[in-house]
Amino acid sequence: MNWGHRIILGYSLFVALVATMITICVKQDDIHLVSKDYYKEEIAYQGQIEKLTNVRRLSQPVQLRYAGAGAARLTLPASQAPAQGHILFFRPADARQDVKIPLHLDPAGNQDIPLGNLAAGLWKVKITWHLAGKDYLSEQALVVP
User: Fold this and answer.
1) Contact yes or no for 90/139 (Cβ under 8 A)
2) Which of 75, 110, 116, 133 has the fewest Cβ atoms within 10 Å of its own Cβ atom?
3) C-alpha pair distances (Å), 30 with each of 7, 34, 95
4) Of 59, 60, 35, nearest to 48 (Cα)?
């Protein structure tokens, strides 16, 4: 085989590889965006920064930890106990498994969250609440065994 045929063969293999990769990408049907309103949320990102700043100004940090026995414990400063909000368990691997639960803190600022309905693995947890005219947002990672 002379050098001209080798160039044509190499180019043909490259084109076949690119065509195969494009075909695989186009046929994927399990692609899920992080959020259905992704672009709208990006525009409102300055509000998110302000919510995160409000959390950093709290007297104690927000804590979310695995408490054993299939539960997690969320701890906020006691001053935040009357807050209204929700907790979003976001599954990076599959958005269809996301779970949103209401925020119900006890007077000490704690909430026990059962994890029995969550699959094992990494979950990103977004805690959002409102109190006294201020909005708060805390993002944490939790590994469910």
Assistant:
1) no
2) 133
3) 38, 12, 10
4) 35
